[in-house]
Structures are given as structure tokens and as C-alpha cells.
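Supplementary Data S3. Sequence and C-alpha cells for construct A.
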Amino acid sequence: MAADYLALLIGWGPFTGLLLIFLVFSWIYVRRYQSNRFSEVFPTLTAICSLTLALTTSAILPVDIFLVSYMKNENGTFKDWAADNTTRLQIENTVLIGYYIFYSCILFCVFMWIPFAYFYYEEKDDEEGRCIQIKTALKYTFGFMMVCSCLLLVGIFIPLDISRNRNVTEAEKIMLLFEELGSNYGLAALSFSVSSLTLIGMLAAITYTAYGMSALPLRFIIGYKSVVYERLQNVEDMEELKVKIERIRSKCKDGRPLLSMDRHNLQKLEDNLRTLRKKEGLFDLYEKSSCSKFCIAMRPLKIVWGIFIILLAFLFVTSLFLTNLDKALHSAGFNTGFIIFGTNLSNPMNALLPVLQKVFPLDYFFIAAVTMYLVFSSMAGLRNMGIWFFWIRLYKIKRGRTRPQALLFLSMILLLIVLYTSYMTYSLAPQYVMYGNQRYLAKTNDTQQDGNGNYTTFVSKECSTDAPQDQCMVTRTYLFLHKFWFFSSIYYYGNWTFIVAFIFGFIVSCCKGKKAIIEGGVEDEDSELSDTDDFPYI
């Protein structure tokens, strides 16, 4: 019994440490982007907790893989303490309980906590009481709760395989229904709800993460425009505006009033001139700051870091492409979720992770690093594109200028994207996610003889879908991901779309060139979405 407790301690120990790290990271990240003027405690705490929950849930995957791998020896036999199937199931059930808890919390955040925080802040009015705010927020949140209830109900009834024997009465069918509902402990309902959210996360990853994976490193490599060049350009623009303003004012020197169109143009030119003067002041502050001098000194390291990240992105996309190509050539088809039996085309990530797992917890921190990389890439995409609803831009994401509503949208999008990373990790390394580095003993066709008679020889093989079920433990993560085959089929096509979006985003990022060193904070469009206006739409 001591050995199985030791396995749980080794597996879940780093998880506790990562939980604290993710909490600190989420607090710093949210505080860095929230508005300095319009900061609210409740939306800020909601965003921090949501991001922490998303990152922590992704850290259960390496725990699951470690536990199933730790039960077996390198020769393919179970360790003495794991020889009993009951012990193995008890250990794996700790992972299942972890998924139940964290996925339930995710549903609570997506369908209750975040919507309530959003509508509570939207309805904030000094003239109305807090009770009215809460009442209005609960009214809108109730709609999200109804959607969640529908997903849970659909998840309960879709996977059931009730007997179609005509001799079975309706009462017996109902009894079979309740027996099956009790046997899976709500796994199907929870899996369907989470998979539905993962579909939305897939769309968000295609939109933001795929673009951010190229925009983030190329920004390090390409860099920004020279301050000297921008200052000269700014001075030229100011002189040009002054000439235009003087030309319009000259029309009323004889006492005649300006036409309405001239007055409108004059007002617009004067606003643009004030913006450029503000920008000139920002140039002075930037040149005097020690941060700018430090950034110039670190420029070579930024280029090296950008090259490393873009190589990691290409490794990521190449592994995803090879896995999808393997599914296209060797899978069992659409109706099985494009499941593949074994690995026919090896990819770099699938080969690297089992090697890292031999030195625990290297694979643990590698998966955490990949998840953080995807979060940073998603943030880069969100920062460059903003938050959109179809063709309408809702919010811009700016450091120190992001409104509470935008923070809640941001946390929701990142939570859904991190949900999708679990399936993306499976796409990158399917063998690793299903079995870790497990091996099993397979009978050979050779029969040897010794002094006591004939005996069958065994050979150690890597666990795959061809292995006997009692010889290889499948991770609980895989069971959650593939509870419904049609979701897996949609994810398969989503991965192809992700690859195309990455290539398109890479081309766009290369063509955009250098950005201005003073970007945002002075443009009229930005001011409409910043701390000077209550209306968040463009």
C-alpha cells in the first residue's frame, strides 16, 4: 500500500506546485492588462480565477500519463503493488475525480460565474441599488444556465445504447436507461458538455492562436521602427497639418463665417494635431526612459528568442500535420473519429515526449511550457486582432487599458482555448497521451524447449490499440476526449484548418513589416476603446 501512495505523491506533487505558479502568473497577467482607471475587484478576481483554472486543468494530463506509466516495469510487466486490477483502478480514479472537479468548475465559470460578473458590471449604475444589479445579472445568467442544462441532458441521452429487442417492454427500457446512467456516474454528460465548449475553443484557437504563433516570434525578429525616423515623420505630419489648418482659417479672415464642412474639417485637423503633439511627448518620455535603453541592449537576445519560438512553432505545426496525415491515410474513418491503430507516421513530438517521461518530471514541465506557449500565442493574436463578434470589433486588448468587460471576454476565450489544447496535445503525440511509455508482453510464434518441456517465448512491445485490454491502461484523458466519435471527427478537420490558418498568418505577419514604437494610446480609434469612453464598440 505504501508504494501506491508514493506513486500518487510523486504524480500529484508537481501538480500542486504548478497550481501556485499558475495562480501567480494569472494574477500578474490580468493585472498587467487591466485598465488603470476602470478596474473592478469582482471582474478582476473572476478573470484571475478563470485563467488559473484553465491552466491547472491542462496540468492533469501529465499526471494521468505518469500514473499509468509508473504502474509498469520497462520489460512490460506490472509492478508488484500494481498487479491487482483494483489497485490500478483506484489510482486512475484519482485522475477521474480530478477531471470531474475541474471540468465541473469550468462549466460553472463559463455558464454562471463569468456571465454573472459581466452582466453585473454592465448594469452598474450609481442611481440603482445593488439588489437591482444582482437581479438583472441573474436574469441574463439564467439563460446561460439553461444552455448548460441542455448540454448535460443531451450528453446523458446521446451515448446510450438501449436494447432494441422488440420483446423488451417500455418499463424495462426505462430501467436499463437508469442503470446505464448510474454506471457512468455522469461521465457522458460532463464529457459532452466539455467537448461542446472545446469546439468553441477550437474556433478561438484557429482565429487567435494560429495567427499569434507566427505574430509573436516575428515581432521579436523584425522589431520596431526607429524612434528617430518616427520622430521625423511625426514632425513632418505636424507641419503638414498646420499648413492645412492655416489654409482653412484664412477663409474667415475677412469676417465671413466658415461653411459647416470647413468647420468639420478644421475640428478634425485640430484633433489630429493634438494627437501628434501627444505622440511627440511620448517620444520624449521613451527616449529618456531606462527601459528603452535596456530594450535596445537586449535586441540581439530578442532576435535569438524569436528564432527559437518560430522554430518551435514549425515543430508544433509539423507534428500536427504528420498526425493528421497519418489519420487521413491509416485511420478507421469518419464514423470512428479518425482513430488510428498504432503510429504509422512518426512525428517529432510523439518521439520526444516518451523520452522526456523517463526523467520525471521533464515531460510534466514540457507540457506546461507548451500550454503556456499557446496561451502567449493566443494573447499575441488577441492583442493584434482584438475581440470580434463576426464583423464587429467589440474590444481591443491593451496593456494597462483593458476594460473589465474585455478582461472577462479575454479570460473566457483563453479558458476555451486551453480546453482545446488537451486534444491538440493528443494530436501532437497520440501514443504518448493514450499510454505514456507503457509496454506489454506479447506471445511470439516461436516455441522453445528445455529440460522441463516446451514453453512459449514473449517479447516486449509498446502499448497500442492492438494490445490486450488487461495489459495496457488507457489514460482517463483519452476516455474524455473520445467519448463521442463525432467530436473527434470535427477536431480532425479543425486541425487541418488550424494548419492553414497558421500558414496564412505567417504570410500576413511577414508582409506587415515593422510596427511603430509608440503604438496605441494616441490614436482616435484607440481612444474610443480606451479609458476615455464608456462605449466599447467601434
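Construct B, processed identically:
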Amino acid sequence: MKGLDLSMVGRDWVHVMNMIPSLIKLRLPLCGLNDIPTSLSHINFTSLRVLDLQNNFFGSEFPPWIANLSNLVSLELNGCDLHGSIPMAIAELHHLQVINLGTNYNLTADLSVLLEGSWMAIKIMDLSENRFHGEIPISIGNLTSLVELNLGYNSIKGRIPKTIGNLCGLRKLNLYANMIEQIPDSLETAGCILQTPFANLAFLLLGGNPIHGSMPAWFGQLKRLEWLDLQDCLMTGSILESLGRLPFLNMISLYRNSLNGTLPTTFGQLSKLRYLDISSNTLTGIVSESHFEKLFELKTLMLSSNSLIFNISPTWVPPFRLEFIDLGSCRLGPRFPSWLSKQNLTQHLDLSNAAISDTIPNWFWDIASHLSHLNLSNNYIHGQLPSQISFSGWATVDLSSNSIQGPFPLPMKVSQLNLSNNSLVGPIPENINHVMQIASLLLVSGNQIDGTIPSAIGEMMYLRVLDLSRNNLHGSIPPTLGGCTQMEALDLSGNHLSGPIPESIGLLTHLQTVHLNYNNLSEELPSSMKNLSRLETLDLGENKFSGRISTWIGESFLSLRILRLRSNTFTGEIPSQISNLTSLQVLDLANNHLTGPIPSSLGNLTAMRTHQNRNILLAYGIYYNERIYIITFIERLSVSMQDKMFEYNKTLSLMTSMDLSEKYRIL
């Protein structure tokens, strides 16, 4: 039975089954069982050969009585929320061929002891995603019936013993995400007919381990290898050319190591290769057409964060149609790579920091209609963008830090758009809310945008980050902005905005960072701002705000890290309530018209008195993804030191500063 709801039967179901001595197979996966006894007074169902209880939620210790099922051939208890130690007697079940205890998360045993058992018939062993520890013993080489060994996501340490090569029939070896430090330079092959290591191995997953040293030569002898995963290790040396002569390879991941040298041209002969990720290493040299000669099946190409130089003919027609391309920080320019014109299945394209000094060709926008992710940032791209651009639904588009000219573009089907640090001119289109209605992030800082902020922006209900800083905008902040109720980050600094902050800002209760500095804003702060209880940064410096500094700043903004009100016309005393802001690291009230004593309670600002030794990137608006570049709003702040202003961003969390003077002071 599978999927039958037995959640109400309690633990009696085991006792009922135990009354059937002739029972051979018991399969109850995904049945909602939530209880299993840890002891039985006697075992009747000793004929049981198959026990499949996977994906029930027992939440108990591993039942020791299972080790007494002497005829058991297959045991599947994966995903059952079991915990505690595995009885060593389970290794002496002489008929056991399959054991799957994966994804219980809290099962434990010392592998150096557990794998010393006989395991006479074992073929498939899955102990992944648990808390198994210790080292893999030399005796692992005695388990010669093993076909699959999955020990990924545990706490195994030490080295892989040479004797593992005696597992002549092994097809899958998964040791991913442990603490293994060493791979043997050579393997024992005693008893293997062909006297070659792992003659049948198809899947080798060793990534996520602190493995030192270079690739052993025997990697290049795994003639039936299909998957090679060595990502997130500490491997050094060059990539083996012999890997390019393994005819069945369809996945290679060497991401984030310290590999050097060049990309072997032999990789161009891997006709079954579908996935190639060698990003985040220290590779150098030329990449030419020969590197891709027979990669007919390639779908994913990731070579970013190396120092590779592409030398590809503009007339080259690639043999593949890629879906995922990440070549960030490879040198592809100066011309825009014409071979991309044939990649009409691509969904993800990253050519950032690729030394491209060219206009974007017209044919590219036909490809863009399939893209859900485009990153062309940090190049020298110039020219205008088309008036109408469309991407695949909810796309992420980053064209920042180029030399793109012309009016403000309105790309369709885009959720995250970064056009910062270009040369865009003219106003923000009034119909932005209709064309970009799904936008959650809009970064257009550092351009020459003028005119007023259109009231229609307040109808962009998904907007979480709005950065229009360092432009030539004038007029007032539209009250309709209060309609962006999901807003987390708002930066309108460095413009020519005037008038008061609208009362409607109090509707933006998700706001965490507000930058309105370097404008001509005036009047008193609206009392509705006290509703912004999640604020971490409030920068209103270099404006014409007046009145007293409100006491509610110290009562409502208890998460505030940065309070910057410098160079305004605030009057009165510094409110003692500011001392409630125990997370405050930067307090800048300089160049106002404040009077009275400095409150002694400011000495209670805990974060200022604490040495900040852990750097945290202060970023807002978008969830973090390690492998895929995702646009976000990174906090920044100008801090005065010795009559000069310094801007901090990535190390801002380490800063502690207080300035209450007419001149500059820093602690």
C-alpha cells in the first residue's frame, strides 16, 4: 500500500503485523504513520524480507528490534524522522542487500565501527543526510557486493582509504558535504577482473568537502563515469586532460576550488556532456572553438570568475543550443559575441565584466524574449535600448555600470531591473505602472533622469526596492508612494526634491532603509513615520528639515543601526530616548541648531561600545542565492572623518561613528 492514510492507527499496527509469521513483504510508504514501537517482546514475523516504511513521520529512536529480522533483504526507512544510534547488529543481517536510512537527519553511528561489520550481501547503502561520523575504515574494501554507497551530508572526516578501489562493482559513490580532507593518489584493485579502479563507476560525488591537493590520475581512468562533482572543495593544480577522454561524461562540476592552468581542449570531445561548471577557480589562457568542437548535447556552460580569454571567430556556429550561460569575468570583448545569435533556447545569460565595448545588436532582443535572467553589467556597452523590450515572465535584468544612453526604457515582464550607473536621460515614463506592473526591484541610480517622480509608481504593488538616487529629479515626493506597501528599501538621495515628506510614508510598514539625503526637503518630520518600526537605516542628511528631533525616533525604531540627520535645521535638545536604540552604530546629528547638554544616557548605546568584528553585508529587497547572481540593494552611507566624507557599503556593518558637532567628529 502507498499513500493510504493510516495516521489514526497508533502503534498497534506493528503488533498486528507481528502476528503474521508468514509475512514476507511489508510496504507502507507515505501512509501517515506517526508511531513505531522501539521494542517488541518477541519477534514472530521472522520471514519478513522487505520492510518499506519510508516517508512516514515516526519521530522516535531507531527501533532496535529491526536488527532481529534475520531474513531481511531490503530495509527502507528514509525520511521517517528517526533519531539516535543505529544498532551495530544490523550489519550482521546476512541477507540484507538494501538499506536506506537517508534524510532522517539525526541518526548517528561511528562509521569506523559500523562499516567494520560483515555486511555480507549489501548492494545498496544510503545513510545520507544524517549525523554519521568518524572515518571510513580500511575494511570498506571488503563490501565487494556494493553497487551504490551514499554517505552524503554527514560528518565523516579524514581520508578515503585506498581499499575503496576493491569495490569493483560500485556504480555510485556519494560522499558529498562531509569533512573529508584527502583522496588517495592510487587505489587498490585486488579481486577486480580488469584490474582498473571503479570499472563500473558512473556517479562520483565528492563536492562540499575540504579536500586538499590535486586531482588523482585515476579520475581520468573511470571509463564509465557520467557524473563528476568536485564543487566547493579546496583542490589545487590543473584540470586533468584525461577527463576529456571519458566518453560517457555528461556532468562536470569543479565550481569554487583553487584550480589553475588552462581549460583542457580535450573537453571539446565530450559529446555527451550536458553540464559544465568550472566557475570560481583561477584558470587562465585562451578558450577557442576547439574547446566546444563536439559538445552537441551541452545545455549548461559556467566558466565565470576565472581569467579566461575567448578567442572565437565572429563566423563560428556553435554545435550546441545552451539553456544556461554564465561567463561573467571572462574576457569576451571587445565585440558583442555573435555566436550567441544561435542560442535561442537560453534562459539564463551572464556576460558581466566581460570587457564588451560595443552596442547590443538588434538580433539579441529576439533571444531576450526567452531570457528569465540577463546580466550585462560592468561592461562598456553603449548606444540606446529599443523602445520596446520583452523578456520571459518575471525576469531579472541587470544592465548597470555601462554607458547606455537614451530615454528611460520600459522592458516588459521584468520583476528586477538594474539600470544604475549609465547615461540615461529624460523623465520616468508616466505609464511605468502599466508596463512594469510586476516589478519588485527598480534601481536607476547614477543617471541623468530628470522631471518629477510619477505618481503612477505608487500603483506598483509588488515594488520592494526603489532606488532613484543621484539623478536630476525635482518636485515633491508623491503621496501615492504610500501605495507601495511591500517597500523595504527607498533611496531618493542626491536629487533636487523639495517639500515635506508625505504623511503616506507611514503606510510603508515594511521599510527597513530610507535614504532621502542631499535634497531640498523641508518642514518637520511627519508623525506617521513612527509606524516604520522595522527601520534599520534613516538618512535624512543635507536637507532643510526643521523642528525638534522627535522623541518617537528613540521609541519606535528599536532596530535602527544608522541615524543620520546632519546638515539640517533641527532645533532643541537631543532627546534622551535615542539611548533606547541599542542597535545603533552610526549617529550623525552634526551641523544643525541643537542646544542643551548631550544626554549622558548616550553612553548606553550598546552597539557603539561593542567592537564590531563580524562583517555582515547589509542588503535588502531580494533573497540571496549563492550560485545565481541576484540583484539587490546594498546599503551605503557617507561618514565624515577629518573634514572629509567617506562612503561605506560592503563593510558598513563594522562601522561605529558618532558626530554631534558643528564640525566633524568620529569615535
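The two ends are 70 Å apart (CA to CA). Helices lie at 12-17, 111-114, 364-368, 432-435, 552-556, 606-609.
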